[in-house]
Amino acid sequence: MLVIGIDGATWDIIEPNLDKLENFRKLIQEGKKSTINLSQKPWSPSVWCSMFSGKSPEEHGHRDFVRNGEVVRREDIKVDFIWDILQEKGVSVRVLGVPFVIPPYNFNVDFEFVANGVPVEIGEIEKDLENITEKAEEILSKEKPEVFIVVYTTLDRVCHLHWGEPVVLDMYRKLDEALGRLIKHDKEVIVISDHGFCDYDKAPVRTLPRKTPRGEIKGDHHPDAVLITRNVQYQIKQPEDVFFALKEKYMGGE
Amino acid sequence: MSKGSYTTVSIPVQLAEKIEKRIEGTGFNSVSSYVTYVLRQVLSSLEEKEKKKEAFSKEDEEKVKKRLRALGYID
Ligand SMILES: [Zn+2]
Q1: C-alpha atoms less than 13 angstroms from C-alpha of B34 in its C-beta half-sphere
Q2: What's the complex ipTM?
Q3: Does B72 contact A116 at a Cβ distance shorter than 8 Å?
Q4: Contact between chains at A160 and B68 (C-beta distance less than 8 A)
Q5: Residue A254, domain member (yes or no)
Q6: What is the pLDDT of residues B4-34, one digit of tens each?
Q7: Full-model pTM
């Protein structure tokens, strides 16, 4: 099973541009698309943590990248993630860049992210995307794990400061190209975002400040997230269900 | 400790026998030299890991916070 997380991806950009996003189009044709209306706050650290621990924010207790002035680490979060559980059962699993913490979390993978996984400038964001795709291709073609989870922060990072600008669609196209390079390695695929994105003034839930030392914030996180599955039986309705989908597939009713 | 001086550590006889078999026909001429080699390897990889962790906690931590602030993730 291949799980591709795309931080901040929204149907509001994918759908009207499907003619330019051929790999999204292909996956949708071969699988199923839906919208996840988040029952929790559209906030990356807690949503990614829920997605791979199967726990709600109340249960896992993880809210922010920084707590009491300190960058939160994996060890600070007292949960077992799906990769911990599957590995224990003898399933081969690799994880590249799940951004519930900074730097994004790897499991059985040695990799360093551009700017510790918080690229801000366009050039940094592009470089990060390319590096991750190269590493992911290497893992998929050489190591061939049963489960591979990879997450891109590309779209989220660009949307914070550039929502509404042409560079956003450019990044979607680059991400689409990356998608094409990965999905050919596995029949079973989950593509999922942790939240959507929208114009700052139209956000139903306010999660970001208007201004930062870097400049004006142009967009905000939206509670509608993207889901596409190909050859996945389990019904995914909330982020937590990705945990249960993987658990059921590899561990049955255990 | 000065270079070239040695001390003795104890390991189970069974383990020593296993190692003796393993080093037959290799460049290791004693159980001691093999054990020394293995321990050096283990320790250096542990030290490497610890260094990586530390490397993030100081300067990089401030850089990361600055970037998170730029995006609006923290105040
Ligand atoms: Zn974001």
Answers
A1: 18
A2: 0.91
A3: no
A4: no
A5: no
A6: 789 999 999 999 999 999 999 998 999 999 9
A7: 0.83
